[in-house]
Design goal:
The protein has a domain of about 90 residues: YaeB-like (Elongation Factor Tu (Ef-tu), domain 3). The strands form 2 sheets. Strands 2-3-8-7-4-9 form a 6-stranded antiparallel β-barrel. Strands 1-5-6 form a 3-stranded antiparallel β-sheet, with no helix packed on it. Helix content is about 0%, strand content about 30%. It is built from no helices and 9 strands. It is mainly beta and about 170 residues long.
Length: about 170
């Protein structure tokens, strides 16, 4: 029997429970969106301020992050399906493979967003540009550059940050 939220031509696979990795959530994301229907499809730096609320043990890990204008946020899309191999996201009859989409529906629902860093308040990082539900588990925060990608735009007057690796 096809689940009720499957669109025409989408394919569901039967999966065993995942048991091959453990992730450590470092906090929660606080956004104004409580329901998936309210959530934007893509975040925008003109969008509302959102907060990355880290567990206090991770506060020292934020040192130096203020030097960046943009950061990458990784989060766990805990309310997403994990069993679609094809999807029809626009309801236009076109079906494509999950790995060719930025859909939150994926085998390992890791969300990423390149966001504008507004400020850091203790254990909270205030950003603009997120597109996830309030309470989403936070996986990681990275500066917007590494040795293999373009340099991030540093904030005016900030000391040039050291080169990092992803």
């Amino acid at each position: 029997m096809t689940p009720p939220d499957i669109r025409p031509n989408e394919i569901v696979v039967q999966l065993t429970p995942p048991d091959d990795a453990q992730l450590r959530f470092i906090g929660r994301v606080r956004t104004p969106w409580r329901d998936r229907s309210q959530c934007p499809r893509q975040g925008s730096v003109e969008g509302p301020e959102c907060r990355l609320c880290l567990d206090p043990v991770w506060a020292p890990a934020l040192a130096g992050l203020e030097a960046y204008a943009r950061i990458e946020v990784l989060y766990w899309l805990d309310q997403s399906r994990r069993d679609l191999v094809t999807q029809s996201p626009r309801l236009d009859g076109v079906t494509t493979g999950t790995f060719s989409l930025r859909s939150p529906v994926r085998p390992n629902p890791i969300g990423t967003a390149l966001v504008q860093l507004v400020r850091i308040d203790g254990c909270e990082v205030v950003v603009r540009g997120l597109d996830c539900l309030d309470g989403t588990p936070l996986l990681d925060i990275k500066p917007d550059r590494c040795a293999y990608s373009p340099r991030a735009l540093a904030k005016p007057g900030a000391e040039e940050p050291p080169t990092g690796h992803s």
